[in-house]
Design goal:
357 residues; alpha/beta; 434 Repressor (Amino-terminal Domain); Rossmann fold; Bovine Mitochondrial F1-ATPase, ATP Synthase Beta Chain, Chain D, domain3; 16 helices; 11 strands; globular; ATP-binding; ATP synthase subunit beta
């Protein structure tokens, strides 16, 4: 069906970094390209000439440029900090980086659980080394393999039936095996899989480009983990290509920018309060500090993968609920809510019951 066709926007933006400028230079209207990328203009309604030019710019075939089955889109995970600040791109690559103890492998196991809930086949490409939490990732995945050939064969056997979420260690990037896997899948005509990469040696955080091109980068913050704020994903420095080219709703982008700005200011003020006390803040800075504190606490969340350890049921929060809650915090509707009531919970609304003490 023609309405099932989509541009492989992830591939296009990876290979043509400044897409708008390149498209204009090639004789295309930027609005035309933007509408195709966002899905506003169906691929089936596009001129063949336009698609050929885009394929030439990306150095790919039309079969690679046009994919069936939903194309590039945000994968909603129900994890507030990810969906709000660093959305996962369908068919893209996610890189996780942080210091030891910041919860990267817990996040990987959690993503496996949540992707399975969305109907994905979850595959774990097991690394040679050992790390605390590797076993939990393996248990959470549908299938686990140690060899490139096994991974490729399994993906090929299920990819036409459903999307695949692949988890792997950074070693497959450094060894070239991930590139080899992608080449093999491309040659077989298999659509891109969504891939999450982690570093069990905790060296990626010190590298400028630890994984090569990424669609989503999740930076883990040891300060958040030290204060028990999990997931310890840094909402200021974690990023996604979904934020570029109007691939997200304008309201989401605007709200995200407001939230990042507040959290940056809050971090600056934390240092001041730690050194001189809350009383030195101006009235406006005091408001920013208190709202930033509430937003930071709200972004913590119970995971399904840790229920046995925390005795707290995992929470799935829809993107719309997250946007609504963040807006309320930014606008001051939760100024009266105690910070401790926002810590390690799901939706904000359940703590806003009139008359609750």
């Amino acid at each position: 069906m023609m309405d099932d066709l989509q541009l492989n926007v992830s591939l296009l933006r990876r290979r043509v970094p400044n897409l708008t400028t390149a498209a204009r230079a090639a004789g295309l209207r930027p609005a035309t390209v933007s509408n195709l990328c966002t899905g506003k203009t169906p691929v089936g309604n596009a001129e063949v000439k336009t698609l050929v030019i885009l394929a030439n710019l990306a150095g790919c075939s039309l079969d690679e440029l046009i994919i069936r089955g939903g194309g590039t889109a945000m994968i909603e995970t129900g994890i507030k900090v990810l969906d709000m600040f660093a959305p996962i791109v369908r068919g893209g690559t996610i890189g996780l980086a942080g210091r030891r103890g910041s919860g990267q492998l817990v996040m990987l196991a959690e993503l496996c659980r949540r992707m399975k809930r969305r109907g994905y086949e979850t595959v774990f490409w097991k690394p040679e080394g050992e790390a605390n939490g590797i076993g939990n990732v393996e248990k959470a995945a549908d299938a686990a393999f140690a060899e490139l050939g096994e991974v490729a064969e399994h993906i090929a056997s299920v990819r036409n039936e459903r999307d695949v979420f692949l988890c792997a260690d950074r070693t497959v990037v450094l060894s070239g095996e991930l590139f080899a896997l992608r080449e093999r899948l491309e040659e077989a005509g298999i659509r891109p899989v969504t891939t999450a990469l982690v570093d069990i040696l905790f060296e990626a955080i010190d590298e400028e480009v630890p994984y090569g091109p990424l669609d989503t980068f999740l930076r883990f913050d040891v300060d958040l983990s030290a204060r028990g704020l999990f997931p310890a994903v840094d909402p200021v420095f974690s990023i996604s290509t979904m934020l570029e080219g109007a691939l997200l709703e304008a309201a989401h982008l605007t709200l995200q920018q407001r939230a990042r700005k507040l959290l940056r200011r809050y971090r600056e003020l934390r240092a001041v309060v730690g050194a001189k006390g809350f009383g030195v803040l101006t009235e406006s800075d005091a408001v920013a500090y208190q709202r930033g504190e509430r937003l930071e606490a709200y972004l913590s969340q119970p995971f399904y993968a840790t229920e046995v350890f925390t005795n707290k049921q995992g929470e799935w929060v829809s993107l719309q609920d997250t946007l609504d809650d963040v807006r309320r915090i930014l606008d001051g509707a939760s100024d009266h809510t105690e910070v401790k009531k926002l810590y390690f919970t799901g939706r904000l609304a359940i703590h806003e019951v009139p008359g609750e003490q």
